[in-house]
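Researcher: I'd like a candidate sequence for this fold, 485 residues long. If you have to choose between options at a position, lean toward the conservative one.
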């Protein structure tokens, strides 16, 4: 119900379940903390955020861990859920994340008291390397971890030994890459305690979680002390709120000046975009627009983000573009749940959204790349920018319209375009965003010039070794500080 936009039904069901099964902590969490994946209005965001704030306080107060039975039930509950969707409200979540993180740490500490004490940094003996561990349920083809391949591939093997811990179980060719670039690769699927014991046994110097917040087991692991120094990165670009995570590995190009205010961790701004993203392979595209039932004379604006990245306060942007670009076609790849909002937004300017919005299902990667190549303009989402999708659009030389937000998660595309020195399509506000999108739609010569710039410079964005050098300098400094302390 939540995923399909039926939030009131979801809340009613969660309340009913918590009454019927009062000892099931999963339903207690859902009762208090469930939020929409899609908001109907800006006022909705305010309402549900306040509901979450109140619910979190109530959940914390009502969580008792006095008996072994209560401890186990709370553990089983947090094993099922994360608060992933909160961050799509586009607010600074640091205080709420800390409150939730403290709750998770209380529960984990009650169940695993042996794994909460600080760990001494292992002495680095002569000819030994610094042991770096990477733990994730997503060491396969997944947007939140694909960039990690570059960190491993360009690792300084003379000074570092890489351990990877794959706690999921969807191996694919990308998993083989992780294995290839690891000194030690451990596949421990869906076995929380075994994974923790193995990490501890390997006596790492530094443990890194590429993402925290999408997978419940990873959140649980991260709330324990399994290595002397623990870090997270922007696979999920939101602070964890966990006191057990020391550093957030981010990007100097993505973070605003006041960025530390958004994190409970110490923020580390790595060079450039902070990650070494492998250059996507773009095969020769043979399909045409007709294969996707798209008109040859249409100006195709690609809208390829997950539906929950589209916030209602920005719905007016597409009909404004359509009013000025009569041939505009907005192609959504995952956004059919947005139809009621789009209908209202287009009707507000006396347009029928069905004349402009197309919803496609693209199951094959080759077809997805074809849509990028066949499109004219990529419209980035405001507040939560495209990550992998923007990188792949740049690899397809597709002009991107973006507007950097207040938080790092709204500044991905902005940083990518700055790194390749194509700033022409970066807007400073919503009005300028519309102007740039309209100009790209109406001026094919300028659009071609932007595409050519991207083509000539896009290689600067991929397989970046400067960020890896910055990362490894940070690792050495951290270890050195511990050794000298």
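Model: Candidate sequence:
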């Amino acid at each position: 119900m939540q995923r399909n936009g039926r939030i009131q039904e979801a809340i009613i069901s969660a309340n009913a379940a918590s009454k019927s099964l009062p000892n099931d902590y999963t339903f207690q969490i859902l009762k208090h903390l469930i939020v929409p994946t899609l908001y109907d209005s800006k006022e909705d965001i305010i309402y549900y955020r306040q509901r979450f704030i109140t619910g979190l306080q109530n959940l914390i107060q009502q969580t008792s861990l006095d008996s072994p039975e209560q401890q186990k039930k709370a553990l089983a509950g947090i094993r099922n859920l994360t608060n992933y969707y909160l961050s799509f409200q586009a607010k600074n979540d640091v205080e709420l994340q800390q409150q939730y993180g403290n709750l998770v740490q209380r529960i984990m500490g009650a169940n695993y008291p042996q794994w909460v004490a600080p760990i001494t940094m292992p002495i680095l003996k002569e000819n030994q390397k610094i042991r770096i561990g990477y733990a994730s349920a997503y060491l396969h083809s997944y947007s939140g971890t694909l960039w990690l391949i570059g960190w491993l591939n360009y690792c300084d093997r003379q000074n570092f030994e890489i351990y990877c811990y794959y706690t999921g179980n969807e191996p694919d060719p990308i998993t083989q890459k992780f294995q290839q670039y690891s000194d030690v690769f451990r596949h421990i699927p869906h076995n929380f305690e075994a994974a923790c014991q193995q990490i501890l046994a390997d006596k790492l110097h530094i443990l890194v979680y590429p993402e925290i917040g999408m997978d419940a087991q990873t959140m649980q692991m991260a709330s324990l002390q399994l290595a002397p120094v623990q870090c997270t990165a922007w696979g999920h670009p939101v602070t964890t709120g966990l006191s057990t995570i020391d550093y957030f590995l981010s990007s100097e190009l993505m973070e605003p000046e006041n960025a530390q205010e958004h994190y409970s961790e110490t923020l580390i701004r790595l060079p450039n975009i902070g990650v070494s993203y492998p250059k996507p392979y773009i095969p020769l595209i043979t399909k045409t627009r007709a294969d996707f039932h798209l008109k040859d004379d249409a100006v195709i604006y690609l809208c390829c983000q997950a539906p929950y990245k589209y916030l209602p306060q920005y719905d007016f942007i597409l009909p404004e573009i359509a009013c000025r670009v009569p041939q505009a076609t907005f192609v959504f790849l995952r956004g059919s749940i947005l139809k009621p909002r789009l209908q209202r937004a287009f009707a507000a300017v006396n347009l029928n959204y069905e004349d402009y919005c197309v919803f496609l299902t693209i199951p094959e990667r080759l077809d997805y790349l074809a849509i990028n190549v066949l499109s004219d303009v990529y419209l980035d989402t405001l507040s939560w920018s495209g990550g992998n999708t923007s990188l792949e659009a740049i690899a397809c030389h597709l002009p991107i319209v973006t507007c950097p937000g207040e938080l790092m998660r709204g500044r991905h595309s902005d940083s990518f375009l700055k790194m390749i020195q194509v700033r022409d399509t970066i807007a400073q506000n919503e009005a300028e965003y519309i102007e740039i999108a309209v100009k790209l739609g109406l001026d094919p010569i300028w659009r071609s010039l932007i595409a050519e710039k991207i083509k000539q410079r896009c290689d600067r964005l991929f397989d970046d070794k400067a960020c890896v050098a910055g990362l490894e300098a940070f690792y050495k400094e951290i270890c050195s500080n511990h050794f000298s302390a």
